[in-house]
Amino acid sequence: MGIPVLILGESGSGKSASLRNFKKGEVGIINVAGKPLPFKGDLGSYPTDNYAQIHAILEKAKAKIIVIDDAQYLMANEFMRRAKETGFQKFTDIGQNYWNLIMTVINKLDDDVVVYFMSHIERDQEGHEKVKTIGKLLDEKITTEGLFSIVLKTQVKDGKYSFVTQTNGMDTVKSPIGLFEELEIDNDLKIVDQKIREYYELDKKSTTKKTEVEKKINDFFTRMSK
After folding, report:
1. DSSP track, 78-147
2. Which residues of the chain, if any, have pLDDT below 70?
3. pTM
4. Dihedral angle over CA of 129, 134, 137, 141, nearest 10
């Protein structure tokens, strides 16, 4: 069971920039919007908004950290491609496609894989904040944040970039009790990932699985040699 994590923020508030401390090979980046990363480096990314390709990447990737950057454009791009279609079926399809992607992370990936969905924020007339989708019809079919145990939000205050770890009552930010000690933490996704792995003991799960696989291989060759 993989772990999906939602990272919310305004454009330019530090979502993509939080990847800056990863080294090549540590993280796989699916670049939905196809834009360059906002820092120098050789991380590289795979540009696509095709669900079939993304599912294949998730299930075959060797990286234990995967980022789907500008994930809200998966919904927006599909909507624009189908904008001339009449009726409500397209909204159901858009919601189901996005839901299926999150379910793939939860149900089909290894326990030690964490997938970060980077998304924009939208506000209602009262100032409540939530993940940006393509309208009320989709929101009625899928409460996106409800599928995540960890939802962080980027923040810029006095020129300092940070992540907020708990709700202010007007947003959907949340994190498990004890995962983060502070309400605001450094805008560094590598540190966030380390915290998550320590909290859920993901490295231990990875070691246990590797040991189980090695045991099965050894047992197989032992039986073959008899």
Report:
1. HHHHTTT--SSHHHHHHHHHHHHHHHHHHHHS-TT-EEEEEE-EEE-TT--EEE--S-HHHHHH--GGGG
2. 137, 205-226
3. 0.88
4. -80
